[in-house]
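[audit] Reproducing an earlier prediction to check determinism. Same input, same settings, fresh worker. If the C-alpha cells differ from the archived copy the diff job will pick it up downstream; this log only records the rerun itself.
[audit] input (348 residues):
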Amino acid sequence: MKRGLAAVAAVAMAMPCLAQPAAESKPGTNPFFTEWATPFGMAPFDTIRPEHFVPAFEEGIAQRKKEIEAIATNPAAPTFQNTVEALENGGLALSKVSDVFFTLTGAETNDGLQAINKQVAPLLSALRDDVRLNETLFARVKAVWEKRDEAKLTPEQKRLVEETYKDFVRGGANLAPAHKTRFRQINQDLSSLGIRFGDNLLKEMNSWRLVVEKKEDLAGLPPGVVAAAADAAKAAKLEGKWVFTLQSPSIWPFLTFAENRELRKQILTAYTTRGDHGDETDNKLLLTKIASLRAERAKLLGFPTWADFVLDDTMAKTPARVYELLDRVWKPALEVAKTDAKRTSPPR
C-alpha cells in the first residue's frame, strides 16, 4: 500500500512540474534524504534534480541489503512477523526514489534520465537476484510458507505468505547453484537489453514530427489540441504551422479527432513502425535476443515457453486457455467489426 500511494502521489505531482524550471536547492542537500513536508507526503518535484537520483538509489540499495541481511540472519525461529512481514515493510528508502524516478521515465523521459536508468538498472537487477537467490532467506520464507495453514494467519497474511513464496520460486530460489549463476547472467543481460531498447525507442519518438501547413488539415481537432500544436511549432521555429509528435498528448488526440485520413495514416504508421527501419535505432535484433533469453529463463524455471511462465501467474494459467478464449471471441467480434466497417467506410 505504501508504495502504491507513493506512485499515485508522484503521478499527481509530475506532470504540472516537469515543464517548470527546478527551484534552487541548498548545496549538499538531496531531497530523497529528507522528510517531505508536502501535502500527503508527495514528492517535491521542484527541488529534485537529476544528480539526486544515483546517490539516492545507491543509499536505498545499501539500506535494503542491510535489511535483508538482518532478516536472513535473525537467530529467532522464522515467523510471519519477523520474516514475511519484515520483507514486505522494508525498502522504504529505495521505494522513495524508485517511485519518483520511474514515474518520470514512464511519463516524460529524456536522454538524461535514460542515462541514469542505464546506470541504476543493473544495480536493481542484481539486488533483486541477491534477495530471491539468498538461500538463508529463502529457507526462512519457505518455513513460514510450509506452516501457513497452522499459523492462525488472517486471509490477508496468508495471501502475502503465498505470494512472497511464489516470488522467490519464480525468481530462481529453487534452482541448482550452476543454474542460479546462469539465471543471474540472463537477468543482467535482459536489463541491459531493455535499456538499449528504450533508448532506441526514445530516439525514434523524439526525432519524428508531423508538420501541418494548411489550416484545413486541422479539421475536427479540438481548439486545445490545435493550440498545443501551434506552441510546438513555435518552439521548433516553425511559426504559423502546427507540429504533432508521437508523444501521447499529441498523437492520440490527433488520431481520435482529425478528419484528414492521410495524415492520420502517416502519424499512426510512424508510431507502429518505431524501431523498425534498419538503422542505428532498429530494435529487431534486440527483440530477438530478448525473446531468446526469456525463453531460456523460462526453461530454467521449468516452463516450456516464456508465455507459460508469464501466464502461470494469471487467471488464464496456460497459453491453451488464452487461445480457447480468443477462439470463442473471434467469430462474434469479427462480425461486429465487419458491420462497423460497412457503416463507417467512406464512399468510393
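[audit] rerun output stored. Observation attached for the diff report: The chain has three domains: 2-174, 208-272, 314-348.
[audit] end
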